[in-house]
C-alpha cells in the first residue's frame, strides 16, 4: 500500500482514533480527534483484510476523490484523506443523531416535515449533480441528522463520477439498494444520470409520508418487477390504508408520482426543480418564524433546551393545516 500512487493530495491534518463506531466488509469507522479541527470527526479506515483487492481500494480512493469535490450544508463534510499505518483512510463530519431510517421506525411524518426534508435532500442532490456526481444509493439509512435536526446526505461509496473515464462498477452490473432503485439502475443502463437519484428521492418521500417504500416484496426480484412494470398506489391512498390521520395535499402526491415515473425523461427536469416546487408550496402555507423550525421539529435527537419548544411547534403545525399562516418561508437552498 505504501508504494501505491495516490489519486488525491493527502490531508496535512493528523488524527487520533478513539471509539470504534461501526464496521463493514470494506472499512471500519472510528470517532477521532485532530489538533487541526475544532470538533471530533469520523475516520473511515480501509479494512486491512481487503486492502490487497485492487477493485476495493480503487472504490475507496474514488470515494475520497468524490468527497473532495463536494461542499454543501446537507452533504457530509469532508476533511481529507490519506494513509494511516499503511491503510487508506478519510475523515468526515461526525453525525451522532441517528438516521432518517431510525426516525421512520416511529412512523410516517406529517407532510410539512417531509416536504422540508425533501427541500434539503433535493438541494444536496443538485449540488452533487452540478459536480458530476450521481449518488446511486439514496435511501433513509444514508440520510443522517445533524445536531439541529437537519438532514445530511452521506455514503458516496457507489456514487458515479460522470467526469471519470470509467465507472467504478463493471459494465452491466446493477448497483444500489433494491427498495429504492430506479428502473435504469435495475437494468444496468449505461446512461444512468441524476434522474436515477430523483427516482430514489420519490421512494424516500413516499416512505416519509406513508411509513413504507412504494414497492415491497419477499425478495429483490419481486420488488424489481414492480419498479420496472407497476405503478405504486398514490400516497394519499397508501396513507388512508395505513391509518395516517392527516394526509398530504394532492400537489405533493402528484410530485411523488412524477418522481417515480418509469422513464427517466418523464421525471422532473432536475433536483432543483423539485426543490423549487416543495419550497414554493411551503412558502404559500407557512410564515417565516414558524416554517424555519420545520427541520427541527421531528429530529431523532432534539437540541437540549428545545424539546418543549419542539412539542409546541408540532401542535402549531397541526393547527396550521386547518388555518394556514401567511408570510414568507426562508430555507437555505444552497
TrEMBL record:
Residues 15-283 form the Protein kinase domain. PROSITE patterns: PROTEIN_KINASE_DOM, PROTEIN_KINASE_ST. It comes from the Bacteria. The chain crosses the membrane at residues 312-331. It is an enzyme of class 2 (transferase). Its EC number is 2.7.11.1. Keywords: ATP-binding, Kinase, Membrane, Nucleotide-binding, Transferase, Transmembrane, Transmembrane helix. GO terms for molecular function: ATP binding; protein serine/threonine kinase activity. SMART domains: S_TKc. The keyword Transmembrane applies. PANTHER family: MITOGEN-ACTIVATED PROTEIN KINASE KINASE KINASE 20-RELATED (PTHR43289), SERINE_THREONINE-PROTEIN KINASE NEKL-3 (PTHR43289:SF6). This is Serine/threonine-protein kinase PknH.
